[in-house]
Structure formats: structure tokens, C-alpha cells
Amino acid sequence: MTWPRALRDVLRSGLSIEETRLEPLLALRAAVGVALLVGPALWLGSPAYAASAALGAFSAGGATFQRAWRPRKVIALGAGAGLALSTLAGYLAAGHLVTFLPLVALWSFGAGLAWAVGSTAGIVAATTVGSMLVTITLPTSAGRALEHAGIIALGGVVQAVLILLFPIRRWGAHRDALADALAAVADYARRLRHDPLAGFDPEPLMTARDAAAVTPSQARTRPVALHGPRGVAERMVPAIAALADPDIGAPAEGPGRDRARELLDAAAEVLDAAARSIRRGTPVEVPPRASELLREGPEHKVLEGPARQAAERLRELLGQALEIAECGNARTGTPVRHGGARVEFLERPTMFRLVPVVARAVRRELRRDSPVFRHAVRLAAVATLGYLIAAQLPLGHGYWAPIASVMVMRPDFHRTYARAVARLAGTLVGVALATGAVEALGPDARLFGALAVVSAGLSYTLIRTGYAYSQCFAAAYVVFLLGMGGQAWEQTVPERMTLTLLGGALAMLAYAVFPAWETPRLRERLADWLAADGRHAAAVLRHFAEPTADRRADMRSAQLASRRARAAWQEAYDRAQQEPVRPRGLTAQEAKAAQEALEGFDRAATLMESRVPHDDNPSTPEVEELAEALESDTEQAAAAMRERRDPDWARVEKALRTWEEAGGRNPALRSEADLQKHALENLATAVSRTPLERDVGSLREDQRVWEAVEAQGNGSEPAHRGG
């Protein structure tokens, strides 16, 4: 993608409105938390104390809107504690630049590394840098600094208490994640009715699994409906795929295919009903037609062999999903007790046990080629440089420049630039509106305090509809706070606009100078996905060779690793599509062909999983050699791809010939193995090109992009050239 096109996409993305469900009650509760601190602080204390209280309550409330699976009150308390600590540390070092600047750099570097834990940790950590830069201007002594830190921490406590006293849609994010997973499987069933070879994106199931991990205290209060449907949905995907597949499932045409389409449609309706029930916490309402189709009857005789087995397995799993949903959402449902050791759940570490987990995650990112490490370096450099530049300008409130930089910077190019555009646009509009209100209403600290609370509530309400629109009211919130302190708009508005522009420009320049492009890493990500897929396919075959509980656990572990590798590839590929970087190693067409090949490989493994034998059932020992060959060849092929060599499948071909000569007893399994071999051959075709061919292909792709851009500018279709 060229720079002009990338910047146009950035502008469009930064100002776009995301269609999401508004949560006004959550916004109202968070705004009340701000009011409960700003009002008394203004009445009993001073505007400076009110500003500290507003900062703590507003930032802690905003942190609870980030997507996280821990209780919101824990997030609020953590944000408040981090803000208070950064405020106190900043004041203690603020006497001299020689002590304060290194602290800002070190703190910003740590905030950047927090992205190793997740986006929520990274965003909350960035707000602590802003707190350090702002609140050191408020206290006048160490004792006052401690008081301000306490007031800021109190903001987190107040938000946590409000969440505890007025719970709104408890477990709502977890319900949404599980419902989205069931809805994704329903959508997959519908797509298979029309395209029996359609692929399935496991991301909703991965999100639901992440949401299912709970601490022991959470496990005691988790609703019954959130306990089992995810596992049922996991097992349903292979059954649906096997039923629709024309090679091992229902025939391509005829009554069997018609019956399979009816079952897939009924399964989709049942899954949608279960998803609605879990999302809303209401009883399940299944359409009568779907219930009739899923009952055992003479119509099922048109399906034979593996197709009949897949249909029976699908009906069994759908019945389990409905039973769990009905039990969990019934008015008289009894909660599941978690007192005994027999109850198993995905465990999430508590806050204290999280420390070594965070340390390991950060240690993994301490390398020069890590996007998180490069983001941390950029953040530290920009925060320090922005503070120094702003201090030399004849403007007050110089902290706005580094704050603007810190709050918009992200580990990737597109989000950094899009947020910079959104922050500037939102700040312009918000400051203009709030300044007009300040001028019209005149100096009134209490009125401005009330308007600040209203602005905070509107910012919370729009926080998920687009950064620009939330930032508009956040900017107005700051203007009202400054007006509450008696500062004239002539002293603040031009300063903030200039310094916000400076901070955004520094953030964008920093990424251009010290980027972390994903485009050159695509080949590495693809190799990781291939190796993980090979281990997963080998684990499935080994379970056929020796059906035991340990082999089943290995298969599940390998499947999760394969999904993580696929998600990493998809994230890198999506980012690379938005980067103004010439393709290196893989062109866009090659990357797309390779992705389709590996998706076909995944699909073959999914079909195998639909028929894995139960533990201690009769085995298929002849596939052990194929499992070893698949794991070995894919591992070697991944290494070859990283070194830009052509992959080779010699051991896989030999194992398949041996299996054929031995007369394998499982023709369906052999058919799926052939599908895997075909997918590997497609992958080799996609990535096996000589360096000259690759360079020529890259140049041609660049030429096509330029032609498309010129055609859009001229309002015509791009010309197609031969050769």
C-alpha cells in the first residue's frame, strides 16, 4: 500500500463510527462516581483537589470500559492505585529535570511493555504516564503530594464501590463472548448449506475460551449458563463440517444432501436460540420446526455411514447445549457449587499470582525485533522529547504535548495514526464547544463542575463508538475543569490545540522513524502457523493410532496452539494490508494463496476430529508413521520458509504410499489425509518461487496498486495489462 492510500485509510478509520451497543447505564454509574468526588472536593477543598479527584475517578471509570475478563471493580481499583503511585513518584522526582526526565522515560518504557500483557494493561498504564505529567503541577509539598495521590486512589475506590453496590449486567462481557461463539457456529452451519467446503474462523471460540478462564472467587458466582456451552460448541464444529462434506458426509446431490441442509439449518436456529438465551439470561425459545427436524425419525435413513454418524452426533450436542442453556437461565435454576476438587474450570491467576505471569510475558518481549519492545522505546523517547520541546515553548501546560503522544501511540502503524487523527479532530470540536459554553456562562466553579461530570458521562457513553467522538467530550471535560479553577480560555484553548497537534505529530513521526512493520514478518508468522498445524494434525492421527486420555489431551493442546498461531498470522496479515510498505518475502497474492492452503489443511484436521475414537476404543496403528511424517515435514518446511527455501513433503508422500500398500482399514481417514497432502502441495506452490520471480511479482503488484489509485482518482476502472 502506498503512503497516500494508507493515510486516506487512516483518516477514514480515525473518524469512522463503530456500530456497537451503547451502555448508558454503565456510563451513568461511572459519571456518578466522578460527581461523588468532584462535588465534595470542590465544596470542602479547592479546585486543585477537585482536579485530582476528577482525574482519579474519570480515569478509573474509563478503565472499566476496556475489554477485560476480570471484575470491573478490580480494574477500577488497579487503575486508581497505578494513577496514585505515578502521581507520588512524579512529584518526588519533579524538582529537577535531571531526575524527572529519566523517571518519565522509565515509566513510559514500562507502560509500553505493559502491552505484552494485553491491550487493557497497556491502555491503563498509558494513563498513569499522563497522571504523572499533569498532577505534579498541583501539589506544593510532599505532604500535599501524598494527599493528592490519596484522592486519586480514592477515585478508583469510589468507582469500585459503585460497581459493587449497583451491578449492571453482571457477567455481561462473558455472556456476550459465549453467545458470539455460539452465533459463529450457527453462521458456519448456514454457510455450509450453500458451500460445503466453507472454512471456519475459530476466533470467537478463542475469545470465549479466554472469557471462560476465571479466578476461584469468580468460579463460585459464575452463572450456570456459562459453564458448558463453549465446550459443546467446540465439539459441534467438526460434526457440522463432517455432515456437510461431500466426500465423507452427505452426498453432493439427492435426498441425502437435502436432509443435510435441513439439519444444518435447524442446528443454526437452535444455536441462535441458545445464544440469545445466554446473552439475555432468558429461557430458550427454539422454533418448533427446528425441534422436529432434530428428532430421530425415518427421514434420517436417507443418511448413511459417516454422514449418519455425524447427524446423530450433531443432535446429541445440540441437545446438550439446550439443556445447559435452559438449566442456567431458568428462573429456578440452582447455581453450581465449586467447593470440591472434582469441579474443573479454566483457572485465571489472581492479582498476586499474576506477577510472575507478567514478568514472563515482559521478558519474552525484551528483544529488538519485538513490536512491543519497539513501542516501549518509542513511547519513552516521545514522552521525554515532547516534554522537553513543550517546556521550551512560550506556552503553559506543556504536559499536553507528551500526554497527546502517549495516549494515541499503539504498537502498530494504523492504530497509532488513526488515533492521532481522531484525537486532534475530537479535541478541536470538544474544545470549541466547551469554550463557547464557558464564555456564555461566565465564571461559576460549581456549574463548570457539573458540566464536567456531564461531559464525562457523554465520553463514557460514546467510548465504544469511536475514539474521536469520545475524545470530543473528554476534551470538553478538561476545559470545564480548567474553567472550574478560574483559568481563562484565552490562556488554555490555544495552548491545548497547539500542544495536542505537536504531540500527535511527534507520535506519527516516531512510528515513521522507528517502525515495527508486520509486512516483513509475514513469512515468519506463516511458518509458525504451518509448524503448529503440523503438530495438531499429527496429534489427531496419534489419537487414532492409540486412543487414550493422554493422547486426547495432547490433541486439544495442539489445537489451541494451532489456533493461536493462526490468530497471530491473521493479525499480522491484517496489519500488513494497512502498512505503506512494499511486500517483502511474500506478496499479497502469495500470502492469500498460502492462507487458503493452510485453511484447507486445518479443515482436513477438523474433519478427522469429527470421528476420533473414544478412549480405549479400537485403534488404527498404521497412521502412526504418517503422524511422524507430518510433524517432521511441516517442521522442516517451516524452517525452510523462514530461510526462503522451498518446502518438501518427501516423508509425507512416503508414509502415504506405505499406508496404501498396507491396505488401510479406514477409507474416510485416508481421504482426509489426502486432503491434507493436497493442501500442503498448494502451500508449496504458493511460496515456492525464485527470487527473480518474487521481485517481478512484487513490482507488478505495486504497479497494479498505482493503477488502481490513479483509476479511482480519474473515476475509471484500472487498466489490465498482460505479461
From TrEMBL:
Pfam families: FUSC_2. One of its GO terms (cellular component) is plasma membrane. Its main location: membrane. It is found in: Cell membrane. The chain crosses the membrane at residues 48-65, 74-94, 148-168, 376-400, 420-438, 468-486, 498-517. Residues 386-509 form the Integral membrane bound transporter domain. It comes from the Bacteria. Keywords: Cell membrane, Membrane, Transmembrane, Transmembrane helix. InterPro entries: Memb_transporter_dom. The keyword Manganese does not apply. It is a multi-pass membrane protein. Belongs to the YccS/YhfK family. This is Integral membrane bound transporter domain-containing protein.
